[in-house]
Model the fold of this input.
Amino acid sequence: MNKPIGLLSTIVSVAVLCGFAAAPARAADDVASKAEVCSACHGQNGTPVNTVTPIIWGQQSNYLYKELHDFHSGARVNATMSPLVKDIALPDLRQLADYFAAKTWPAAPAANAAAVPPDAIAGKIEMCKACHQAHFEGGAPAPRLAGLSYEYLLSAMNNFADGERTNNLDMPGFMKALSESDRETIAKYLAGL
Ligand code: HEC
Ligand code: HEC
Done:
């Protein structure tokens, strides 16, 4: 009477043990292989292939997920990103966000280090720090801005200002309140951080 049950439970435990051993390795492989397509543009080492593509290595995880969610749902529209993530399920997008957020922000290329005289930005960036943090390192849910490229920062700021990017309630108003030359100066400053 005891024997078959004993055997059965042995088989079950072996199956469970194998399952536990194999599952995390498979999950890690899965996300790494899904991330390969992203690296073609966002960079194999975290440095994007061009300056219109933002750094996602080491970016805030909640922010990355929100943007992937928004590209997926259509709340943020981009000709490159929208079709890429339209058919990826939300839990997979969450995994990708965590995967890239856990990596290290790449070192800035020397070209980013354009010096902006402190009085050129005085009084214009203090309010940003309430959300983007003291050194623009970001914090949930506001993204890191320090060290993104000048081109990407300016285009993101202009997209909010001209109503093209509407997936946040506050940013469009903040960006409209700045002159175009202020946006250029701030983008230059943030790229050099
Ligand atoms: C063909 C090039 C390309 C590929 C492949 C690609 N991206 Fe992008 N990605 C871009 C560009 C360009 C932007 C900037 C869009 C914009 O200007 O609004 C972007 C923006 C993003 C953003 C928003 C970042 C921010 O700071 O707002 C996230 C997150 C992102 N991509 C994640 C991914 C992930 C994850 C993958 C893989 C599933 C991926 N991308 C594949 C080119 C690419
Ligand atoms: C009330 C909080 C808040 C303040 C203040 C604020 N931001 Fe933001 N900002 C956000 C959030 C949240 C996002 C992400 C929006 C989204 O969901 O796409 C964002 C996005 C951005 C982006 C796009 C980043 C990317 O990777 O695409 C830029 C650039 C930016 N902010 C610049 C600024 C600047 C410059 C200031 C000050 C003049 C400022 N922000 C003030 C909360 C804020």
Notes: The first helix runs from residue 2 to 42. Residues 37-191 form a domain with the Cytochrome Bc1 Complex; Chain D, domain 2 fold (CATH 1.10.760.10). The pocket of heme C (ligand 1) is lined by residues 37-38, 40-42, 52-54, 56, 64, 67-68, 78, 80-81, 84-85, 96, 143, 155 (CB under 6 Å).
